[in-house]
Amino acid sequence: MQNNMGYQTKQATPMILVLFLIVAIGPKLSLMNPYIGLVVNVICIFSILVLSSHNITMSNHVAFMMGYLMCQGYDVSGVIYGKRVVSLLISAMIVMGMYYVMNRKKEYKRTLKDVFQEIDIHSTRTQWYIKLTLTICMVTFVGNLLHYPRIMWINLVILSLVTPLEEEHRLRRMSRVPATILGAILFFMVFEWWIPTEYHQIIILLAGFGSMFITSYFIKTIYNSFSALIAAVLLFSAKDAMVLRVISNLIGVAIAIVSSYLFQLFFNTFRNVTFGGTNHGSKLNGEYH
């Protein structure tokens, strides 16, 4: 209820519809083939970040990015895809209405034009846009070429760990794998020992609903691992799902660390070449507001 997009309400509200349309259409187009998908993903993911996370403290991009990655990971066709699109459009109308009601009286200095004008490779925010977009897009491209069974899981780790703030990134990567393993153990205990098969569907629904109320990153990662494995047993055996989940998280953490290091090296080099070693542009245009 307190979230905002960081720019004028009358412009931000219709952009919510644009974001939902990207989530509805982009993943489907990206699955046509890996090469088309690479281009589509770059355009769609960068657009999501620019339109939703100008005010990065709100983390508005997370909901749209998770929707985008999950629609890729759980592809559907025909009538079911039509229902998915209709559901997303209905959701967009509801969110737009709520957003407008909550923000209609607030004054924002920035316009949508300002948001685009403030894209600058020397700013921390724009560097994060580029780093997250290209990392996810390249992982998806290579994963599709190699037919990796759960690219979505790797990308969700990257989405979680590649943040604009280095300290947050460091704390998250330390807890990601241990929390994932604990979630896998919890999943095994619940589904193999405690809960009868006839109640599994109820647990799946409750798991998806309950995640909204967890704020601790470590606990939420345990919970997300548990919830993801519940969904994965529809496609894999419980043992295979657990092993794949842990491996995907290890790969995701490794890629996030390497990507952050290489991109930071590139941006530092680019800044030194451009500004002769000075520190200009690191917090350009009040980027956190």
Can you put this structure into words, describing what you see?
The two termini are 18 Å apart. The protein has two domains: 1-119, no CATH class; 122-278, no CATH class. Helix 1 (9-30) runs antiparallel to helix 2 (34-52), helix 1 (9-30) runs antiparallel to helix 4 (78-103) and helix 9 packs antiparallel against helix 10 (217-232). The model is unreliable at 279-289 (pLDDT under 50). It has helices at residues 9-30, 34-52, 61-73, 78-103, 112-117, 124-146, 151-161, 166-194, 200-210, 217-232, 238-275. It is mostly helical. The protein is globular and about 60 Å long.
Features:
single chain; about 75% helix; about 290 residues; mainly alpha; about 0% strand; disordered C terminus
Global Rg: 20 Å
The proportion of residues forming helix, as a percent range, comes to over 70%
Amino- and carboxy-terminal Cα gap: 18 Å
Total number of distinct structural domains? 2
Sheet of most strands: none
Number of helices: 11
Number of strands: 0
* Overall geometry: globular
Overall pLDDT score: 82
Structural class determined from secondary elements: mainly alpha
| Contiguous runs where pLDDT drops below 50 for at least 5 residues | 279-289
What letter string, H or E per element, gives the SSE order? HHHHHHHHHHH
